[in-house]
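=== RUN LOG ===
request id: a7f3
mode: sequence -> structure
chains: 1
length: 412
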Amino acid sequence: MFTSFSRPQWAVGFAVAVTAVLFALPSRAEPAPPYEALIESLDRIPITVEAEALLDAANARAQQARALPNPSVSVETENVYGRGPFSGYDAAESTFSINQPLELWGQRGARIGAAQAEAKVAALRRDQTQWTVAGSLALIYSEAEAASLQYELAVEALELTEADANAVMLLIEEGREPSLRGIQANSEVESARAAVDEARANRDAAFARLTAAAMLVQPVTAIEPSLLNRSPDASFQAMGNPLTVQIAEAELEAANKSVSVERLRARPAVSASLGVRRFQEYDTEAFTFGINVSLPLFDRNKGAISAARAEERAAAARLTTAKLQTQANRSAAQARLDASITRIRAADKGVASAEEAYQLARAGFDAGRISQLELRSIRSALISARNTAVNARLARVRAEVELAGLDGRAPF
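=== RESULT ===
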């Protein structure tokens, strides 16, 4: 339970009983590792493995972009096996040449720059994936902890309801309450018992989600240390350029470089050749030189250039949207985080007041000054206040997860 919840002696007794029951259960698995340990093992999560693999692929493409075009080798023989003086091989002219494509007008540099820009985008997306997974683990971890706490609260609520029902039965036996009150008390006990079963199912489901999300070998049965009680670092300074905006800027840069690549592809393809020609008739050789230039008469790459420019405009629009939304989302997340902190303080005070009120109401009920209906209402208020305190802490975790995702960091 939260250490900020002040409990009277009777509540402490119930808590001890609940703890004894929990520890008496057979241990089926180890508790969940601390949140920090889960963060350190992010590289095992499939989605982060995928992001890392995509980054490796982008880096490999950037490395491949530096490679020069391969030369081609040709062997050609002329003036052979014809008629007259060319009937045999004596008048043959054989040419051996090497042809090397030339990347002029900065084509190679543009190709390298585009590949490097794509690798930068992949690196930023890898970082974003890591922080997203870290935030998801924090949320699942805290939800499992909250479900465990709510189960313990449901067990304590059942204990309180049974204790109140026993008190009602004593009053009925003494003739101070009608038998109808006993039926109502038993109905409340059954309702509280059903709430315990539901809370247990929710807890087991949350533990299963955590086991799957963290890829743990053994299923968990407990959460420690607490993440719900941890306060975000108030001294953290948000980065000047959020990660979402950085990704949008990198995508725009990559789109710009892609336009340059497509524009240069419309230029003529130039290749140079160097060879040796063998004159069989004169038993001698001579060098050959050549330049081959393509004529862009039919294919000027206009469609690819238009597509690249359209993608550039789309990237620019995404950048504008990212700048507007990120600032607004961060302000909203910070406001929700501040509100959740205030809500936690109010909820803790509400729990203390509700526990004191219930203690006085129970004493008044035993003395015959408080009706069963009033006692039930005050007990319900206590149960609600305790659950509200848990939900307030869970809301703080959610706000911190959202804020950390916008800032490009792990929560807490």
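=== NOTES ===
Confidence is low (pLDDT under 50) at residues 1-29.
The two ends are 21 Å apart (CA to CA).
=== END ===
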